[in-house]
Amino acid sequence: MSTHPSPQELRRKWKAANAEPVEGSRRLDAYRALAEGCPAFVPNLLALSRTCLLERDEAHLDEAERALRTAADVSAGAPEPLIELGRFLATARNAPVDAEAAFASAASAALSLLEEAWAGWIHALGEQDKLDAAMEVAELAKRIVPDSAAIARAVDAAQRRASR
Known about the structure:
The protein is mainly α and 164 residues long.
């Protein structure tokens, strides 16, 4: 039965891989070894793909694409791997239709995260009785996501708290 490395061990190994020289194959080999030991560690998969792209032969392009597709898959639609996949598809594969789909998914996911972040920020400011600051953030947020229920709820909560 295999054991998975702890988060601290993953970070240590990834830091060590990042410290390897780019010239030659030592860094690439370190990323590959880490990916083999923990195939769901997205930062390593992204670094692996970037390092593969330094070599422009088909084998390295294929490896970069596999790493990016795995990163997008295991990250459950997080924006960063999708953006990198889209960039790869647009530039290395000259596949604008596939790139468009990756970028559209990334934009949708990023917008959802941004909406959640703004709502949380507004709520936190309201909890600190910083209504003016909360309203400034809300004004910016509403320009991007004007129909956001989460932002509206956070604004209402901040205003209710301020009126107490």
